[in-house]
């Protein structure tokens, strides 16, 4: 069984106050995109969970048991064992990374959610959607979104999800510069700014999507992390200008960075923009948004 683990962008990302548990309250509209990792699952006669990770040079991911894929597999395995579901003695997981890490594209979280989903289907476990969701929440704030896909508004620490209707797919160019940003650092940098403000754009974006007002969906895109990330890394503010000059209608930070996305009018404009940006940056991806239906249809990959 081979699964596509699709990445995401955030169409809005409002960060509010820090909670007693150390996490921040937030509101965000998350959007699946076609860029993905590939995860292959197969039973193994050797007992235990066996993990292999193939990543291009620039993608720095743990290939050991600290990888979220391995943690997800152990978690689901334990749940299934408690319920006395029949399991094989061993499981092999082979991950091919394509989504850059420390980019804000949710690659690791998507891999973890795909592991939960794939094990549930591969072993015909009958964990309830609520049980899968609890496992996803335990693995990370973004992980529950990747069980659902499409366009979703997330609140709480990111785990309270409300699916939204699909928006017409649009083309994107994503540029990952050679710096990586840790999510924890980005939240701390926001906390260190007493004058920080939130765009509070999620509610307006949600309404625009519910009314099918695509013009406003374009206009309302924003990300609270930009105020600290562009200040700490001026080269990213510069990159945003370059993406605009390559023809983007909109450009924003992906999650807490360091990748930026540009929205393009069509595939041709995106390919042209990517060609221009490719002269200065080595990690440039042309992709597009995915509806929930496409996310679910394409999740199970043919051999690639
Ligand atoms: O949940 P996850 O492990 O992905 O979060 C990584 C880090 O990002 C957390 O340790 C925390 O510092 C920060 N975070 C936060 N508030 C959130 C989500 C993440 O402060 N809602």
Automatic annotation (TrEMBL):
Pfam entry (one): GHMP_kinases_N
EC number: 2.7.1.148
BP GO annotations: isopentenyl diphosphate biosynthetic process, methylerythritol 4-phosphate pathway; terpenoid biosynthetic process
Pathway: Isoprenoid biosynthesis; isopentenyl diphosphate biosynthesis via DXP pathway; isopentenyl diphosphate from 1-deoxy-D-xylulose 5-phosphate: step 3/6
Annotated InterPro entries: GHMP_kinase_C_dom, GHMP_kinase_C_sf, GHMP_kinase_N_dom, IspE, Ribosomal_Su5_D2-typ_SF, Ribsml_uS5_D2-typ_fold_subgr
GO MF entry, a single one: 4-(cytidine 5'-diphospho)-2-C-methyl-D-erythritol kinase activity
Reactions the enzyme catalyzes: 4-CDP-2-C-methyl-D-erythritol + ATP = 4-CDP-2-C-methyl-D-erythritol 2-phosphate + ADP + H(+)
Coiled-coil boundaries: none
Domain GHMP kinase N-terminal residues, every copy: 67-150
Active site: 8, 142
The GHMP kinase C-terminal domain, residue ranges: 205-270
Keywords: ATP-binding, Isoprene biosynthesis, Kinase, Nucleotide-binding, Transferase
Keyword Phosphoprotein found: no
UniProt-annotated binding residues for ATP: 100-110
Keyword ATP-binding listed: yes
The protein's enzyme class: transferase
Family label: Belongs to the GHMP kinase family. IspE subfamily.
Function (record text): Catalyzes the phosphorylation of the position 2 hydroxy group of 4-diphosphocytidyl-2C-methyl-D-erythritol.
Protein name: 4-diphosphocytidyl-2-C-methyl-D-erythritol kinase
Source species of the chain: Chthonomonas calidirosea (strain DSM 23976 / ICMP 18418 / T49)
């Amino acid at each position: 069984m081979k699964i596509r683990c699709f990445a995401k962008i955030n169409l809005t990302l409002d960060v509010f106050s820090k909670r007693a548990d150390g996490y921040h309250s937030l509101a965000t509209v998350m959007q699946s995109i076609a860029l993905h990792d590939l995860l292959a699952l197969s039973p193994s006669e050797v007992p235990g969970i066996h993990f292999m990770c193939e990543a291009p040079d620039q993608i720095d991911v743990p290939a050991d048991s600290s990888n979220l894929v391995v943690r997800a597999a152990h978690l689901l395995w334990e749940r299934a064992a408690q319920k006395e579901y029949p399991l094989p003695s061993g499981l092999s997981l082979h991950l091919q990374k394509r989504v850059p890490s420390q980019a804000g594209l949710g690659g690791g979280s998507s891999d973890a959610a795909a592991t939960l989903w794939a094990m549930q289907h591969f072993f015909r476990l009958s964990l309830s959607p609520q049980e899968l969701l609890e496992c996803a929440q335990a693995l990370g704030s973004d992980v529950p979104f990747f069980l659902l896909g499409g366009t979703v508004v997330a609140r709480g620490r990111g785990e309270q999800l409300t699916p939204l209707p699909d928006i017409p797919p649009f083309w994107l160019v994503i540029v990952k510069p050679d710096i990586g940003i840790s999510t924890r650092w980005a939240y701390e940098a926001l906390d260190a700014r007493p004058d920080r403000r939130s765009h509070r754009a999620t509610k307006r974006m949600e309404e625009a999507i519910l009314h099918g007002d695509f013009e406003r969906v374009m206009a309302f895109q924003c990300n609270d992390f930009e105020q600290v990330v562009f200040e700490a890394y001026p080269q990213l503010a510069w990159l945003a200008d370059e993406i605009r000059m390559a023809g983007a209608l909109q450009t924003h930070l992906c999650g807490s960075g360091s990748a930026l996305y540009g929205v393009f009018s069509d595939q041709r404009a995106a390919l042209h923009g990517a060609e221009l940006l490719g002269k200065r940056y080595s990690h440039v991806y042309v992709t597009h948004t995915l509806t929930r239906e496409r996310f679910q249809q394409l999740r199970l990959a043919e051999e690639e």
